[in-house]
Amino acid sequence: MKRSEKNKKRKILPWVIVIILILVGGVAGFGLMVYKDLTNTAKNIHTDLKRDKSDKREEAINVKDLHPFSVLVLGVDERKDDAGRSDTMVVLTVNPQQKSTKLLSIPRDTLTEIVGKDFNDKINHAYAYGGIKMSLNTVEHFLDIPIDYVVQVNMESFKDIVDAVGGIDLKNDFAFSWGGKDFPVGTVHLNGEQALAYVRMRYEDPRGDFGRQDRQKNVIQAVLKKGASVNTLFNYGDIFKAIEKNVRTNLTFDEMVDIQSNYRDATKKIDQLYSGDGDGQMIDGVWYYIYDDKELLSIKNDLRKHLELPPVETLNNEE
User: Fold this and answer.
1) pLDDT digit string, tens, across residues 93-145
2) What is the pTM of this model?
3) Which of 221, 233, 313 is closest to 12 using CA atoms?
4) Domain annotation for the chain: domains and CATH numbers
5) Beta carbons of 153 and 76 less than 8 angstroms apart
6) Quick one: which H or E segment has residue 201?
7) What share of the chain is helix, strand, coil (3-state, %, to 5)?
């Protein structure tokens, strides 16, 4: 599937900043009681990946020193008796000196090497094979950049977060029905169940998986807008519980605070990168998205430059 838009700038607040702001934003107004609950939530969602730095970096980054960093956001569809797939994979690079963020959504059906399995498959299968760490390693290899942080959001139970903020309002571009629920054109109010159906629909979207990725990001933005309101913050207990249930990250509480304090200007200029020159192919009866080699190399070096790393001259499979 081709997409004509490339390097289109959008004012999209990155998912990781969404999580950080929801966690950190209400502390000043609610004092020590909220601060205690906040630190407990940050502790409960933390997961240790047991590595000091990425193999793609010579030195570990430190957000206290305002180093550029990267984040992989996984929207995981986990169900009973199923390891799940990472339905959404978003990579962000954040450069505080340039006051900018770059955002890349990787199509879930992208064909690449699954690091640790030594064979090629859809990139979203890495999570099913080896969880967060294998997803991180696979994306690092695919893009040839270090991944410093990971945020995993459970899409199956994400409805709990939507309900915790009292539902969300967003603008829907075209009418469709999915999961027994109707979504007319215009502004719609969604509860948790409706929001889950809204982000899961793919086949009726003329933009396919790209369209679903945009709807997922729109839902996250709406959650942030509603979650940051004064009235919603009085319901912070339910919000924290929903986050604890649905979010995992290797970010520590101190890193969240440092990023919120020192990197906020980086969200003022956000470049969203699109893969517009690739195409879909059937291989042994399975549909895959195949990146255009020249475009993929350009994306890699765009992200590397933003991370203040030297460019690469070839793709991994050409080295």
Assistant:
1) 999 999 999 988 898 899 999 999 989 999 999 999 999 999 999 999 999 99
2) 0.79
3) 221
4) 8-156+233-308 (3.30.420.590)
5) yes
6) none
7) 40, 25, 35
